[in-house]
Amino acid sequence: MAFPITRLRRLRSTEVSRNMIRETQLTKNDLIMPLFVRPGKGVQNPINSMPGNYQLSVDLLVEKCKELYNKGVQSVLLFGIPEHKDEHGLVACEENGIVQQATRAIKKELPELFLIADVCNCEYTTHGHCGTVIDGDVDNDSTLITLGKQSVSLAQAGIDMIAPSDMMDGRVGFIRKALDDHHFANMPIMAYSAKYASAFYGPFRDAAESAPQFGNRATYQMDPANSNEAIREVEQDIIEGADMVMVKPALSYLDVIQRVKTEFNMPLCAYNVSGEFSMVKAAAERGWVDEERITMEVLTSIKRAGADVIISYHTQDVIEKL
Ligand code: PBG
């Protein structure tokens, strides 16, 4: 008998057979585009560390959403940069808050575009931490109160899904109850469940003007060395009522994505974060990597690991190819 019997190369020999056996297919349904909104009119501030991304005022944000929607983007994740910040992030709970304004304006023009709000205090506090600071650290239980208020206010503005990214203990349950009490029992929660204290958020903090003014986020975000703990975080969020769970960042945490998917079989999102995006852009700008190929490889690998949906700044660049 000829050797070797098994030749895996046989099915790799033509494009058609390669397509036939492809196990992971990226589609338009899989991607969520993050966008940054700030006050003003006609404002389009480029985010230097994230080429192709801008802080937009509401009017231009609506235009951007139309452009994305026409390309096939079905969902965007909104981050707000407010006019004024305060100690507790209460500015994020106002009826006329920046994301609330953006939500109403987008929904008026594009009722079909699915809007997700990142719920956290770090963009809204003077100190840049994700909650109310007491004795030099973020106080868990008083932060829950602002997170609950922020979520209800966003629901009232017409958001389609709430995504808490603060990493306080008990926040999913607290927000679920706040939403239910205000007649939003059908509002889904996508929890940033396993969110790591990551250096990959660097460019985002420029984009959202949310860098902590002292200390770091290690007392609430997870240690990158831990994976069993991620399972406990996800388990808690599911118990508290999360409809979808998330692992963030994505690329250095593909093992966590796979573990979470296998252990819970929950709808799973992965966040391909700012630093992951910017590294690709920077290397591509220098001609060191092929941007188009590497981007598809990155996104495909996240889906292969087990993510059902991916939040990615690459969305606007790849959507038309899907
Ligand atoms: C808010 C938040 C952050 C990101 C998403 N939501 C920043 C942080 O936790 O410091 C990071 C997203 C990215 O890097 O693309 N807490």
Automatic annotation (TrEMBL):
A Pfam short name: ALAD
Please tell me where 5-aminolevulinate 2 binds in this chain. Answer: 274, 313
Give residues annotated as binding 5-aminolevulinate 1. 205, 217
Its top-level enzyme class, in one word, is lyase
Query: What is catalyzed by this enzyme?
Result: 2 5-aminolevulinate = porphobilinogen + 2 H2O + H(+)
Gene Ontology MF terms in the entry: porphobilinogen synthase activity; zinc ion binding
Q: Does the keyword Lyase apply?
A: yes
Q: Which GO terms describe its cellular component?
A: cytosol
Query: Biological process GO terms, please?
Result: protoporphyrinogen IX biosynthetic process
Q: What is the protein's given name?
A: Delta-aminolevulinic acid dehydratase
Per the UniProt entry, what species is this protein from, by scientific name?
A: Saccharicrinis fermentans DSM 9555 = JCM 21142
Identify the taxonomic lineage of the organism of origin: Bacteria, Pseudomonadati, Bacteroidota, Bacteroidia, Marinilabiliales
